[in-house]
Amino acid sequence: MARANDDAAAALEEYADLFAMTGGDAFRVRSYQKAAKAISGHPEDIATGDVRKVPGVGEAIAKKVEEFLQRGSFRQLDDLRGRVPAGVRRMTRIPSLGPKKAIFLFTELGIDSPEALGEAIRAGRLTGIRGFGAKTEENLLKGIDQLEQSGARVHIGVATDVAEKVIASLSGATERIAYAGSLRRMKDTVGDVDVLAVAGDPPALMESFRAQPYVAEVIAAGDKKTSIRTTAGLQVDLRVVPAESWGAAMQYFTGSKEHNVRIREMAVKKGWKLSEYGLFDGDRVIASRTEEEIYEALGMPWIPPTMREDGGEVAAALKGELPVPVTLEDLRGDLHTHTDLTDGIASLEEMVAAAAALGYSYYAITDHAPDLVMQRMTLEKALDQRERIARLQDRYPGMRLLHGTELNIGPDGAVDWPEEVLAGFDVTVASVHSHFTQSRAEMTARFIAACDNPQVHIIGHPTTRKIGKRPQVDADWEAVFRRAAATGTVMEIDSYPDRSDLPADLVRLARHLGVKFSIDSDSHAIPHLANQRYGVGIAQRAWLTTDDVINTWPLDRLLTYLGRGQDRV
Ligand code: DGT
Ligand code: CA
Ligand code: CA
Ligand code: ZN
Asked: How many Å lie between the centroid of ligand 1 and the Cα of residue 237?
């Protein structure tokens, strides 16, 4: 679902950054950032609607967006891009280097990338320059290292948007085009995007690729392979492959490297050779056109990309015991969503209409509870919302509306409301939103207390990580999952891509211990409902089947599990 909104928002964010770097007024910087956020969360596609209807978008910003929609950029952005090279923008991501110093290094010394800065420091070119003492230089080198190691990876939401944009922009110049690599395996973070294409005129395709508006830097240009860095800072490798080896190339470049090593062993055992061009017996091609043929020739069914991590999938496939992983189509509902009653930006009516359009058979509204004080929730407001939901239900005979709430797990494991109030909700999600740095013992006890609460159904975004921003909390997860399994408490897979929480390795551990899961969007705006595909990716990477995921179940099975069935006393 690549919408014009996201592209326009990204352009405005980039503009805000550049504007700040070139000494722009802080108030205006903030107004661009706010407008970007409002546009990306706006339910209507601005390419067909009117951007002036988005709150916080005034005339000046609307003009820029309109120009962007017409030609993929706007004059003021072009101006600033011309003044600040992409590499200089990347320099501002070095932890100890602010925008002012980055611009200074560029204009005074011609340093135009983090790599160039590292070389300049090591060559002693900064010695004696005011503001760059030995200690500062040391910190900068450390920061450049950090940037290379971690900052280079982005979360799956960013990578998917980039990949879909690249594919849409080149589909006219290709016979076939698709992405492979870690993104196809749906890892929660992606180092670079690997795109494969079949093209009648490879040089023309590469030329068109280099000229796309999302290209900030060309890293390597060739007729078979071109690598660029996008304006979002992500590297994309485009490879042209022969049409007859499409399947072999997809298999090879999807990886993982470790999975490919296993597969190649199978080929070698049979006296064959497997490469990105095909499976060969000497010069004879055994299979190359499709992935299915290759796996079949090696004696196993096609293995879904999300399972290709050398986690026992090859042995399972050879024995015919590969589980059928849950798919997006299997989801019958969403059990964690917000409205503008708390921090969502769409109304109850709008969210429910969008959920119905997805064909769900049930949908839970779970606005925050009173303990998250800034949300200003009260019991009165919650009960009022319950009545609105009951009235709205008549309009959706095919979809059951569930009135839920997202509780806050306090430092001691207590939640907002007493059990008798909670019993009035159809479903409760309980999550940690503060006191992230408690000791392992305290955090473990906190989660266990929440699991022990008979009115807590689901633990929301359990590790509370935000990729690239906030680490996971420290807990004895095995102990938490054991208690969750014993009490029937469900662990959430929060599909919001910068959360991706639980991550797949912890899902695998929890499944092993007998825990059930709920794949939820945690939507705060209509476009977020579509994030469920990322949660499904996590579930597949952990080999979950529909039996493990409660929101694939029919309504009556779900309600019975939650203690809200017909037989409720
Ligand atoms: P990333 O980009 O770090 O998120 O992870 P990947 O898995 O996309 O890794 P990348 O981009 O280096 O390579 C893409 C795929 O190409 C990788 O998953 C497997 C394949 N590949 C690349 N280099 C090798 C290699 O030296 N040996 C084998 N067997 N496969 C390779
Ligand atoms: Ca990659
Ligand atoms: Ca790559
Ligand atoms: Zn939350």
From this structure: 11
